[in-house]
Specification:
The complex is a heterodimer of chains A (366) and B (68).
Chain A lengths: L10 H15 L3 E13 L3 E8 L2 E8 L12 E10 L5 E10 L2 H18 L16 E6 L4 H13 L4 E6 L7 H13 L7 E6 L4 H4 L5 H8 L5 E5 L7 H5 L2 E3 L2 H8 L3 H62 L1 H6 L4 E3 L7 E5 L4 E5 L7
Parallel strand pairs in A: 3-5, 6-7, 6-8, 8-9, 9-10
Antiparallel strand pairs in A: 1-2, 1-4, 2-3, 4-5, 11-12, 12-13
Chain B lengths: L7 H14 L7 H24 L3 E4 L9
Helix pairs in contact in B: 1-2
Classes of the chains: A alpha/beta (366), B mainly alpha (68).
Chain lengths: 366, 68
């Protein structure tokens, strides 16, 4: 028998060579298909098939790599390394998986939302207030993103004197969630904690924004020691990260508006306060003048009342005196007698009209 | 704390206190002019701060595309 020119491998070597060839040809491959036979073993290992109408391939991953809920029938895109196992079975070792169909994205979103809601991650009582005017903030965003530029512009227009630490990260794509999580951890480990952690990203497609529905990222936001403010996408976009954050802004610009007051408004308010003081002082002076006038008036009235009383009293005394006037008595017909009541003495009798001289003839005691 | 070391927020709080003094029971006409001058000075200072203070923006050097 003629010796073959082909190399002869041991089984293990063949598997190793096959895997090397696969790795060379497809170091990482992305495949879109439908999930079937999904199961989790020992709460650690995830097995499922990805299939379409013409074929099916087995997939393997750990439960920690699963960033969003997956179930049978979902259309997904997997990023995977093809591998021949030691048992000769071809499979895909999954690096990442994400729903791709619009309905499936929504379904995955709803499944995770229900799970996190049950855990209380969206509960209103978990929400913390942001400081009124922070002096040190941390921002996580892509410095090349339009949303970041909007945020910084509005922030600078509205307020000054804030220390702003920026972590530049990817805000879309498969590596975005982990980069954002690392940035959250970085700021949370600082000795001088920023007062607010702002996460910014402009608008994008549902797929772009799906970064913010990543379970570990949502949990990292929930676990942040620093109060969080999220300005992701447009007003109509709502992510699980938004729901978990302490404060949700409708857009990156709105995040800056929520974070700091408008200095022009503050200037106007300060000037209004000052402008209100002089009229206030004038008003108080007028009130004081009025008070003094009222008191003076009251004193004058008291004096007047007293005078009236005295007038009446004097008038009454004058009346009495008038009644006691001898002329008045004489006018009433009485006579005034002057002299001694001794017989033979000459006395004087005065009436209202005449004075009579008379001699005392007798004196009789009553 | 001198006026220069105070933050805008501190100054704003101080101004609000000064202004509310004019409506409080502690108001004394004899002190009003001094208090008014203080408030005016503080307001000018706040306005100056608001016009001149810039945000200090630092891009963190650490890269976040890998663990370290």
């Amino acid at each position: 028998m003629e010796k073959s020119r082909n190399p002869v491998f041991s089984v293990s070597d063949f598997i190793a060579v096959a895997n090397q060839t696969l790795e060379y040809a497809f170091s990482t491959v992305e495949i879109e298909g439908e999930v079937a036979s999904f199961k989790i073993n020992q709460s650690k290992f995830v097995f499922f098939d990805i299939k379409d109408s013409g074929g099916s391939v087995g997939c393997f991953m750990t439960v920690w790599q699963m960033r969003v809920p997956i179930e049978d029938g979902m259309k997904v895109v997997v990023s995977a390394v093809p591998k021949l196992t030691q048992w000769g079975k071809f499979s895909l070792t999954i690096k990442s998986i994400r729903p791709s169909g619009e309905g499936d994205l929504k379904k995955s979103f709803e499944l995770l939302k229900a799970k996190l809601d049950k855990e209380g991650l969206f509960a209103p009582e978990r929400k913390r207030l942001l400081p009124r005017i922070p002096q040190h903030i941390a921002v996580i965003s892509s410095t090349q993103a339009a949303g970041y530029a909007d945020f910084i512009k509005i922030l600078n227009d509205r307020w000054g004197g804030i220390k702003v630490d920026i972590a530049h990260v990817q805000v879309q794509g498969s590596s975005a969630p982990d980069q954002i999580i690392r940035a959250i951890d970085y700021f949370n480990q600082q000795e001088n904690l920023p007062e607010v952690l702002v996460i910014i990203r402009g608008g994008g497609s549902a797929d772009d924004l799906s970064t913010f529905n990543d379970e570990p990222l949502v949990r990292a936001i929930a676990g942040s020691r620093i109060p969080t403010l999220l300005g992701i996408g447009h007003e109509i976009d709502e992510s699980l990260a938004d729901m978990t954050a302490d404060v949700r802004a409708a857009t990156p610009s709105n995040a800056a508006q929520i974070l700091v007051p408008d200095k022009e408004e503050i200037k106007r308010a300060v000037n209004t306060q000052i402008d209100s003081l002089l009229p206030r002082i004038s008003q108080i002076i007028d009130q004081q003048k009025q008070l003094i006038n009222d008191k003076l008036l009251s004193v004058f009235e008291s004096i007047e009342i007293s005078f009236d009383g005295y007038d009446r009293k004097i008038e009454s005394l004058k009346n009495i005196l008038r009644q006691l006037d001898p002329k008045v008595i004489l006018a009433r017909g009485y006579a005034l007698i002057r002299g001694e009541a001794i017989v033979g003495e000459i006395i004087q009798i005065e009436t209202s009209k005449i004075i009579i001289g008379a001699e005392v003839k007798n004196v009789i005691k009553k | 704390m001198s006026l220069k070391n105070k933050s805008i927020q501190d100054k704003t709080v101080e101004l609000t206190k000064l202004v509310s003094w004019f409506d409080s029971d502690e108001f004394e006409l004899e002190l009003a002019l001094d208090k008014f001058k203080q408030a005016e000075e503080l307001a000018a200072d706040i306005e100056q701060d608001l016009s001149t203070l810039k945000n200090e923006i630092n891009i963190v050097k650490r890269k976040f595309d890998s663990e370290k």
